[in-house]
Amino acid sequence: MALLVAVAVVSVQMAVKRADPLQPDERTYLAIIDTLTRTGVYGDGDMTAAGVAGKPGRFIAPAYPLMVSALAKLDSGLPAKLACLAKSERKALRTSCGRLWSLDALQIGIAAIGMAAVFAIAHIVSGSLTVAWGSLLIALATGESATYARLLLTDTLATTAFYLFLAALVALVGRDRAWLAATAGAAAGLATLARPGYAYLLYATTVAVLALALLRSRVPTALRPHHAFVLLAAGLAVIAPWLLRNQLTFGDAALTAGYGALALGQRVAYNAMTWSEWGAAWIFWLPDVGDDISRVLFKPETTHRLGFYAPDTFYQVGNGALHATTLAAAGSEQNHLGYLIRHHVVGDLPKHVAVTLALAWRGMWAGKWLGVIALVLAWPVLRELIRHRGFAPLAALALPLLFMLGLHAFVSVNIVRYNVPMIALYSLIVALAAVDLWQRLAAWRGERNQPEAAT
Q1: Which end of the chain is more exposed for a tag (fewer CB within 10 A), N or C?
Q2: Phi, psi angles (nearest 5°) of residue 115
Q3: 102-106: which pairs have CB atoms within 8 A and are 24 or more residues apart?
Q4: Helix 78-86 to helix 24-39 angle, to the nearest 10 degrees?
Q5: Residue 453 has pLDDT above 60, yes or no
């Protein structure tokens, strides 16, 4: 029932949204998908270096382009529409080459599965169907699932895979079932093929599950040491074909090449912020009104570089001048990532950590004001949840989300889009608070009506 409700709501939300222009990142995926569909070669699209067009690449993780290309083999009309979009003008609408009906339907289904997983997570963690339904409806009300389901981006697939991972993990801590460990691992593997950063989640979770299993006399869970190995094996089994392809094609089994240096180059540019800018960032990066408030409170030069679009913002500098200078200093694309880590992360570690905290703040507002409300309610609500349900299920939900939030802030510019799965935690907190408030009001009304009934 939760899945059907999610399909219906996401479908309606997508239907009422107006068409808007393709985003630059969508064009990157379109270029890869178009080449893959026409030639069978998985390349780098518009990220390809001069002189290697048409050759195999691995700049972008493969799950989403492979999924769309497979769909294009089933829908004979889809390849022409994708090719048309790939060649369209910069401000062309997403619907300018016709509606992508089959792809829309597929992404609605994937998004709905993710929302059903949010329902399952809330039910397992809270033990309440009422809270689970409330969590589902709150998550759907944000509109985030429909927003990303209509985009030609990997986000819907990556987010749903992460939700499935979380659902399996919160179930695993309460039930000694190897298939739950395998499901969690496979979901983490799929998430990794959609967005490579999730590989670190797979490894970190393996270590955490093993550690908790060995400490189960002190930490009451159903985890056993073999769960860690099953989880890791399932995740690696999903990733292995892509790693083998890369080993045979490029001589090494790296998941991607080039993207890590590009993302980290954008990120380390923010380490140049002054402490005044760092302080202003905590206001500027609040959802919706943060930039307007900070412009009233601070001088223009204090907030100017925190934006995205002006040529001298941190983002544009990291994307342009800093990328060029660090690449030249590194000597080659192969050495670029290592150079950035040595000189701009380890070499500037205290500032990098401080800026990471501010960027985590920027990226955590999935669902906009839902995140703000959840943060305000978190301490009293989660304290009561731990008292009634124990710490382990909540930890299995919250810690992976916080790990990815911190990782994204440490190695990327950490926009909110990267942390949409935080909605699973936020919607649970708000649903728990709403149900508790309703129960308190019902009890209060009952107490008020009791003397009248006695009379």
Answers
A1: C
A2: -65, -35
A3: 102/71, 102/74, 102/75, 102/78, 103/68, 103/71, 103/75, 103/78, 103/152, 104/14, 104/149, 104/150, 106/67, 106/71
A4: 130
A5: no
Q: What are 239-260's pLDDT values in tens digits?
A: 999 999 999 999 999 999 888 8
Rounded CA gap, 432 and 51, in Å?
57
What per-residue confidence (pLDDT) applies to 434?
95
Task: Write the DSSP symbol of residue 439.
Answer: H
Nearest Cα residue to 155 out of 363, 406, 421, 371: 421
CA distance 35 to 406: 35
Q: Cα separation of 429 and 121, whole Å?
A: 12
**Helix axes 392-411 and 101-126, enclosed angle (nearest 10):** 130
In this structure, the dihedral spanned by the alpha carbons of residues 189, 232, 428 and 110, taken in order and rounded to 10 degrees, is: 20
48 three-class SS: coil
Spatial separation of the C-alpha atoms in residues 233 and 189, rounded to whole Å: 10
Which DSSP letter does residue 23 get? P
φ and ψ at residue 89, rounded to 5 degrees: -70, 165
Average pLDDT, the chain: 92
The secondary element (H helix, E strand) that includes residue 156 is helix 155-172
Contact 52, 68 (CB under 8 A): no
Phi, psi angles (nearest 5°) of residue 118: -60, -40
Please return the burial class of 188, using the count of CB atoms within 10 Å of its CB with bins 0-12, 13-18 and 19+: buried
Please say whether the beta carbons of 164 and 170 come within 8 A. Answer: no
The more confident residue out of 441 and 365 is 365
Decide: residue 373, CB within 10 A, 0-12 exposed, 13-18 middle, 19+ buried: middle
Task: Tell which residue, 439, 376, 433, has the closest CA to residue 126.
Answer: 433
| CB atoms closer than 10 angstroms to residue 139 | 30
Structure tokens at 280: 């202003």
| Residue 43: DSSP 8-state | -
Instruction: Report the candidate in 326, 309, 353 with the shortest Cα–Cα distance to residue 265.
Output: 326
What pLDDT is stored for residue 455 in this prediction?
A: 43
3-state secondary structure 123-154: HHHHCCHHHHHHHHHHHHHCCHHHHHHCCCCC
Q: Is the pLDDT of residue 117 over 70?
A: yes
